From TrEMBL:
<comment type="similarity">
    <text>Belongs to the alanine racemase family.</text>
</comment>
<feature type="active site" description="Proton acceptor; specific for D-alanine">
    <location>
        <position position="474"/>
    </location>
</feature>
<dbReference type="InterPro" id="IPR000821">
    <property type="entry name" value="Ala_racemase"/>
</dbReference>
<dbReference type="Pfam" id="PF00842">
    <property type="entry name" value="Ala_racemase_C"/>
</dbReference>
<dbReference type="InterPro" id="IPR013221">
    <property type="entry name" value="Mur_ligase_cen"/>
</dbReference>
<feature type="binding site">
    <location>
        <position position="572"/>
    </location>
    <ligand>
        <name>substrate</name>
    </ligand>
</feature>
<dbReference type="GO" id="GO:0005829">
    <property type="term" value="C:cytosol"/>
</dbReference>
<feature type="active site" description="Proton acceptor; specific for L-alanine">
    <location>
        <position position="700"/>
    </location>
</feature>
<keyword id="KW-0436">Ligase</keyword>
<dbReference type="InterPro" id="IPR036565">
    <property type="entry name" value="Mur-like_cat_sf"/>
</dbReference>
<dbReference type="InterPro" id="IPR035911">
    <property type="entry name" value="MurE/MurF_N"/>
</dbReference>
<comment type="function">
    <text>Catalyzes the interconversion of L-alanine and D-alanine. May also act on other amino acids.</text>
</comment>
<comment type="pathway">
    <text>Amino-acid biosynthesis; D-alanine biosynthesis; D-alanine from L-alanine: step 1/1.</text>
</comment>
<dbReference type="Pfam" id="PF01225">
    <property type="entry name" value="Mur_ligase"/>
</dbReference>
<dbReference type="GO" id="GO:0030632">
    <property type="term" value="P:D-alanine biosynthetic process"/>
</dbReference>
<dbReference type="Pfam" id="PF08245">
    <property type="entry name" value="Mur_ligase_M"/>
</dbReference>
<dbReference type="InterPro" id="IPR011079">
    <property type="entry name" value="Ala_racemase_C"/>
</dbReference>
């Protein structure tokens, strides 16, 4: 039986049991009917969630079984504990603030030659993710590697018996999730609960908080645990001491021995993660330096990114060419099914290497997964798939190798489809991606979809379960790409979308978006379009109201939902409060029209100096909504707050909030910026580098005068791409290999020049214009504007690349 907690991820319905979990915003019980329709027959439900109506409805599902429990999440966790108990194999449990997933992936790569490894898929490390990860354990495995992450106290004691690690790794401690804990100390202490029954714990002694709590707390509850500590540089002679010069690692232990190894990666975070791995291998008995080195040499960077790229012939590519395992395949297939903007779906898949499963069993399972997807085409690449074609739908095609595929397949066969390209590293599927990808010039805006989800959830938590969320996807979703962002929002089940103009709404509909959409600037020329695409106009004046009524009266069979805007002080669009009883009377007389919502907008939500004004706007708004509701005889949804308002005036959140810039990673009040994640990274490349003598000038109007001989880099980015001309002449800078380099001379239409003197850089190197380490807000400040303008200014000719971590 597969355990399912997300109704959107059912793969083989008849073999699935659904745990209906009630979360902060979602109630799994809502999806039982839908799942029954799909063929699921086993459900775990909570007594408290079974209303009489539900009981009656479910009674009709005679062939389904409902297991009634007090708490479904707890039931899932208990099942996982029982499952774990059946296996007496070594299990590595990993926690810490950063690096958990990388250490897990690298240990898997390093240990796979020796063990049949099962690990958490991606970063499944939560209260739900850990049980699902451990569920994968079966007889073929000889080692488990699972990660655990927590965000509040008492969570780890639940995860401990599920993972029951024999070997523990505590990667490090940082600030992530600090808000859930009283202190850093408490956070460390909570995380250490993962190791209360472990035999060994590996950690880095240079973190005094970890070392202290291990000795104080962990030793008290688990006195027999063996501590394997390592530190950088000199330190206690009883431990592993490490020294690193560039790629060379020298590791030494008074009794275990000494090793000199070449590390494949040399940045500090990778080095720390690698030493955790090497120390773990040594204590597991893999001590031969040549063997260790051989394993390290095969290590690959962990890029679990799954990228959405524009393909040739109107295709969309899902590039997942880094690895291939069954759990990852399920996630990728579910992501494929989320792509509702193309009707045709194609999968190109390689053999699954090192699954630990018997070949026939493995491919029977994968064949079932693939058959469930109702694909238009399936292409299998590799000798194993080619031997097991009978498990796959008729019409599937098979190739022995990537070369054979590239030689025989014509790219013209791919049109108007979503194509998932998923392959194990050894198959080099990046060559397939290159073939099918649309070529573009070197500037891209990368959008991190996991960061978007993080930010959405951040504001949802603030809004609370009772308040709906409308997301503003106007202006190409603040420059991020409206169709893809809207798809993600639909998948995450937001309540409403809003755009500025009808044609933006049409784009959403044409890309498979079914959510209700408000259009803020309707005009009579677009009325027919609004009706045709079920878009809901904002009505802000008597003129537009009368026009809309007149339009509908000529189409008596049609109905429409509208949104009434009240002007409470912004003085942009909207009815004055004293106009509302008349407007309400006009609306009430129109049975064709339903007022879906009523709203207003704060003029200074982000600034404390306008607090009194904001409160006054709120009062006016409440009074206005009451007037309107009285005349209408019903209460439309009320909403007032934008992103800044959600942070600063939670008491005004009413029935719905309107999330904008915060979703895209900019916290407009700057109070909680560190709790959001960066969504967009604008990248370009260096087209040419030249050394220019002192006294020369760079660029138009000879404005960039050189006082010294300088190395000048020309970037493939200009004001036509959205790199504002005001950023020229040293006002702005870009990150080149981590170093900020100022512009020199005027920004041109398609190019800009930067001063690379003293910076190591080559032609073709990647340059970060904004993103992690180069905040949009700093760029905005430099030229006296706001982040909104920078974001929406990235021109549409710059390709958007979407990825998941
Ligand atoms: C754009 C917009 C928002 C969102 O504002 P942010 O500051 O980006 O959160 C909210 N309401 C209305 C009416 C808007 O036009």
């Amino acid at each position: 039986m597969n355990w399912i907690t997300d109704s959107r991820q059912v793969m083989v319905p008849e073999q699935s049991i659904f745990f209906a979990i009630r979360g902060e915003r979602h109630d799994g019980h809502q999806f039982i009917d839908e799942l029954y329709e799909k063929g699921v027959r086993q459900f775990v439900v909570e007594s408290a969630a079974i209303t009489p109506e539900r009981r009656a409805a479910w009674a009709a599902y005679c062939d389904a079984t409902f297991h009634e429990v007090p708490n479904s999440l707890q039931a899932l966790q208990e099942q996982a504990v029982a499952h774990r108990r059946q296996f007496r194999i070594p299990v590595i449990g990993i926690t810490g603030s950063n690096g958990k997933t990388i250490v897990k992936e690298w240990l898997t790569q390093l240990l796979s030659p020796t063990f049949g490894v099962v690990r958490s898929p991606k970063s499944y490390n939560s209260q739900v993710g850990v049980p699902l990860s451990v569920r994968q354990l079966n007889e073929t495995h000889t080692l488990g590697i699972f990660e655990a992450g927590i965000s509040k106290p008492h969570e780890m004691q639940v995860l401990e018996p599920i993972i029951r690690p024999t070997i523990g790794i505590f990667t490090n401690i940082g600030t992530a999730h600090d808000e859930g804990f009283r202190s850093r100390k408490q956070k460390v202490a909570e995380k250490l609960r993962l190791f209360t029954r472990s035999e060994v714990l590996v950690y880095r002694q240079d973190y005094p908080e970890i070392d202290e709590e291990v000795n104080l707390l962990l030793k008290a509850v688990n006195p027999s645990i063996r501590l394997v500590r390592w530190h950088m540089g000199d330190g206690p002679a009883t431990e592993f001491s490490a020294s690193v010069v560039q790629h060379g690692l020298h590791l030494q232990h008074p009794t275990h021995g000494a090793w000199s190894l070449q590390l494949p990666f040399a940045d500090p975070a990778s080095v720390e993660n690698l030493i955790h791995c090497v120390v773990t291998l040594i204590i597991m008995g893999i001590t031969d330096p040549a063997d260790l080195q051989a394993r390290l040499n095969r290590l690959r960077p962990v890029s679990m990114r799954l990228e959405l790229k524009e393909g040739i012939n109107q295709c969309v590519l899902i590039d997942d060419s880094y690895n291939n395992d069954v759990a990852g395949l399920q996630l990728a297939l579910s992501f494929l099914q989320q792509q509702v903007n193309r009707d045709r779906k194609v999968v190109i898949l390689s053999d699954v290497l090192q699954s630990g499963q018997k070949e026939a069993e493995l491919y029977a399972h994968i064949g079932r997964l693939i058959s469930e997807q109702h694909l238009n085409r399936f292409i299998g690449i590799g000798p194993e798939l080619s031997r097991n074609t009978h498990y796959f739908p008729a019409g599937s095609q098979f190739y022995a190798s990537t070369e054979a595929f590239l030689a025989e397949e014509s790219p013209d066969r791919y049109r108007d489809s979503v194509v998932l390209v998923k392959g194990a590293r050894a198959f080099s599927f990046e060559r397939i991606v290159q073939r099918l990808q649309r070529k573009f010039h070197g500037t891209v805006l990368e959008i991190n979809m996991d960061a978007l989800t993080h930010n959405l959830n951040y504001y949802r938590r603030k809004a609370g379960p009772e308040t709906k969320v409308m997301v503003m996807v106007k202006a190409f979703a603040y420059g991020s790409g409206s169709a893809e962002v809207a798809q993600l929002l639909q998948f995450q089940r937001v309540d409403y979308l809003a755009v500025a103009y009808a044609d933006e709404g049409v784009t959403l509909r044409q890309n498979g978006i079914e959510l209700p959409v408000m259009v803020m600037n309707p005009s009579p020329e677009t009325f027919a379009t609004l009706l045709e695409y079920r878009l809901e106009p904002e009505i802000y004046s008597f003129r537009i109201l009368r026009e809309w009524i007149g339009f509908l009266e000529a189409r008596p069979q049609e109905t429409s939902s509208v949104h009434i805007k009240i002007d409470t002080g912004m003085h942009r669009l909207g009815f004055r409060p004293d106009e509302l009883s008349e407007a309400g009377a006009l609306l009430a007389a129109q049975p064709q029209i339903r007022v879906a919502s009523v709203f207003s907008h704060l003029a200074g939500a982000d600034e404390a100096r306008f607090n009194a004004f904001s409160r006054e706007q709120y009062q006016q708004f409440i009074a206005g909504t009451e007037t309107l509701a009285n005349v209408l005889g019903y209460c439309p949804i009320r909403h007032l707050l934008n992103s800044a308002g959600i942070v600063r005036f939670p008491e005004f959140k009413l029935d719905m909030v309107r999330l904008g810039i915060g979703l895209y990673g900019v916290e407009a009040t700057q109070q909680e910026q560190q709790l959001l994640r960066t969504v967009g990274t604008l990248k370009t490349v260096i087209s040419q580098i030249k050394t220019v003598p002192a006294g020369e000038t760079v660029g138009y109007s000879r404005s960039g005068e050189l006082a010294h001989k300088a190395r000048i880099g020309t970037l493939a980015l200009g004001y036509a791409d959205g790199f504002d001309r005001r950023l020229g002449k040293g006002v702005g800078s870009v990150l080149v290999n981590g170093t900020p380099c100022p512009t020199i001379g005027n920004v041109c239409m398609d190019m800009a020049m930067v001063d690379l003197t003293g910076v190591s850089a080559n032609e073709g190197d990647e340059v970060i214009v904004f993103g992690e380490g180069a905040p949009i807000s700093a760029m905005a400040r430099a030229i006296g504007t706001i982040p909104y303008e920078i974001l929406t200014g990235v021109s549409e000719r710059v390709k958007r690349v979407f990825y998941k971590e």
